[in-house]
Write a structure and sequence with these properties.
By secondary structure, the protein is mainly beta. The chain contains no helices and 59 strands. A hairpin with a 4-residue loop joins strand 53 and strand 54. The N and C termini lie far apart (115 Å).
Length: 639
């Protein structure tokens, strides 16, 4: 045998998997076929072409391969070339449903294939996407023409702008039939948010009026979005507060209405933010939360008040829970008292607070060292707790370690510490629940001091009881009294204020009188002499209201001017100095007041414009201006 002849000697395959039958014949030197020999087939590159024992060659990958047919160690050879031809374009990753304006994900891929349906991996051909079926008259945006890499064209960022179902895409490459995708749908994109109503200045704990409405009707292409859920939060909250009420609401016909939103703490520069999924957030205009305080009570190192809508707020020291917010953290601006109660007035003292609600119930909170909260226990309370007994109160006053209240039928009840008879029940036994003051007197008003109590009857008589070590009962003696004792002088009073070792009263003729301890000039008579009976406050002023507590007293004249007298450390008298005054000194600032309230070393007042001011000691934030800086002049409470 001289040679092995392979036919065909050269062949080209254009698709992977394509086959071609080769044959081989053994010949002698004269070229005559010879038989009886076994032909063995081999390929030089199995990755390009493989061949079986019958001589059937199969294309595996692009390239060149040499096929050898051997008989009795004599080889015959043929050349095989595999060159894929691009025959068609096919979508491999079909478009999925998408949102208007957002890239279709996962990315759409189209594959260049040979006649056998195999990817042409070395193809680098521009492929263009276009809309086929276009039920929404949409525009196809993004990168619509890409050059294939490895035989695949990948479209990462194409999107449509109109909502519809039944869209298809068409892929086009030169000299190839177009490829058509499966159908897909486009839903509305992120809704466009806009405030239809802007928040104005709102009262603390009162729902926004008008209600906040946010437009959530269309995406940025005008596609209708009628039921988007929208969440409202505070983008800017000067007080660190969060919104109260339903803050996540679903749109109805493209409008979201937030009907129950409120904020409790005062401040300026609040901003609302509306969000909905991936939508661009919308922000409101800046707005303020105000408190219209109509009643104030200054305590030892804290202050409480009631707003025009009957919500109670407190600020300052809180070690015993006297602010009633459920915590013991100091607060430097008004903080709402917990419990959702509505109050007509509150009374602050050392570390206890009480208030009367709009339905005539009494609640107390704080230290409760001697039962002064009136709930039958000595347990400290950090939020309002009902005074037991079912009595209907119109007024309540908290003293050093006892409290008293006036019922709707003009009866006086007291409870708490009673070591000096300040409860007025004829004993010195502490009372943990309301105990009626002895006698049949009909009271119009009561006021608790540190260890004594005073009241005015419905016929204008002043009575006091409890300790009398400094003549604070005004009966001309220094003897303690366990039951109400009439104040001397035959004066007709409309109001009394019991302080620390002294008392003051306002007569029907608008005259101020004080009696008791006078070491700091707190009686306002121009001296420091103790007085056992009512003594006129110097200056001939016509008062509309008086307030006494630790070592200073204040009053408001019938013309709305505030005056203070007595000790003046920390600037509690509000005249811009720390100088003691033995008779009334005008509070600086030319403000017109309705009422003032004296605390341990600070004073607060409400003006005719319903604005609250405080001055004096402020180490615990009791002035309520957001700082702990001492104030010698009236300073506006954050409200």
């Amino acid at each position: 045998m001289a040679v092995v002849q392979v036919s065909p000697a050269a062949t080209t395959l254009t698709a992977l998997g394509q086959t071609r039958q080769l044959s081989a014949v053994a010949k002698d030197a004269a070229g005559n076929p010879m038989s009886g020999f076994t032909i063995t087939w081999t390929s030089s590159k199995q990755s390009v072409a493989k061949i079986d024992d019958s001589g059937l060659v199969t294309a595996v990958g692009n390239g060149d391969a040499e096929i050898t047919a051997a008989a009795a160690s004599v080889p015959g050879r043929a050349q095989v070339v595999v060159r894929q031809q691009i025959a068609r374009l096919m979508f491999v990753s079909q478009p999925s449903d998408a949102l208007a304006g957002e890239a279709i994900t996962p990315a759409i891929t189209a594959e260049l294939q040979d006649p056998g349906g195999h990817r042409v991996t070395d193809a680098a051909v521009p492929v263009t996407l276009a809309l086929g079926a276009n039920p929404g008259s949409a525009t196809l945006a993004g990168t619509r023409t890409v050059t294939s890499s490895g035989g695949v064209a990948t479209f990462n960022d194409v999107w449509l702008d109109k909502v519809a179902s039944g869209y298809t895409l068409t892929g086009v490459a030169a000299d190839l039939p177009p490829a058509n995708s499966t159908a897909f749908a486009v839903a509305p994109g992120p809704v466009q948010l806009a405030f239809l109503t802007q928040p104005g200045t709102v009262e603390g704990q009162v729902p926004f009026d008008p209600v906040i409405q946010v437009r959530a009707r269309e995406d940025r292409f005008g596609n209708l979005v009628t039921d988007a859920p929208v969440t409202l939060t505070l983008a800017v909250s000067p007080s660190g507060e969060t919104l109260h009420g339903s803050t996540r609401v679903t749109a109805v016909n493209g409008v979201v209405t937030f009907g129950s939103l409120s904020l409790a703490q005062p401040g300026e520069g609040f901003v609302l933010e509306a969000t909905s999924g991936a939508a661009t957030p919308a922000r409101s205009a800046e707005f303020s939360v105000r408190l219209t305080l109509v009643q104030l009570s200054a305590g030892a190192e804290y202050t409480c008040g009631v707003t025009v809508v009957a919500f109670a707020y407190c600020w300052g020291a809180n070690v015993a829970g006297q602010l009633g917010d459920g915590a013991t953290d100091q607060r430097v601006i008004p903080t709402p008292v917990g419990g959702s109660l509505t109050f007509v007035r509150v009374s602050a003292s050392a570390q206890d607070t009480c208030g009367v609600t709009t339905d005539n119930a009494a609640y107390c909170w704080g230290a409760n060292a001697e039962g002064e909260l009136g709930n039958g226990t000595l347990a400290q309370r950090f939020s309002p707790t009902a005074v037991v007994g079912g009595l209907r109160f119109v007024d309540v006053s908290v003293g050093g370690l006892h409290s008293c209240g006036l019922t709707t039928d003009h009866a006086a009840y007291c409870w708490g510490g009673n070591a000096k008879g300040q409860v007025g029940d004829g004993t010195t036994t502490a009372r943990f629940t309301p105990t009626r003051v002895t006698g049949t007197l009909s009271f119009a008003q009561v006021s608790t001091g540190t260890y004594h109590t005073c009241g005015v009857t419905t016929d204008g008589m002043a009575y006091c009881w409890g300790t009398n070590a400094n003549g604070e009962l005004g009966d001309g003696t220094l003897a303690d009294r366990l039951t109400p004792t009439r104040v001397q002088g035959n004066l007709i009073f409309v109001h009394v204020s019991a302080g620390d070792g002294y008392s003051c009263g306002l007569t029907a003729g608008n005259e101020g009188y004080c009696w008791g301890f006078n070491g700091a000039g707190q009686l306002g008579d121009g001296t420091t002499q103790q007085r056992l009976e009512p003594t006129p406050v110097a200056g001939g002023l016509s008062f509309a209201q008086l307030s006494a507590w630790y070592a200073h007293a204040c009053g408001v004249t019938t013309g709305g001017a505030a005056y203070c007298w007595g000790y003046n450390d920390y600037g509690r008298l509000g005249d811009g100095t720390t100088d003691q005054h033995l008779q009334p000194a005008p509070v600086s600032g030319s403000l017109t007041f309705v009422a003032v309230s004296t605390g341990f070393a600070h004073t607060c007042g409400v003006t005719t414009a319903r604005t609250a001011y405080c001055w004096g000691w402020n180490a615990s934030g009791q002035v309520g201006d957001g700082t702990t800086a001492q104030r010698l002049l009236p300073t506006r409470v954050v409200q």
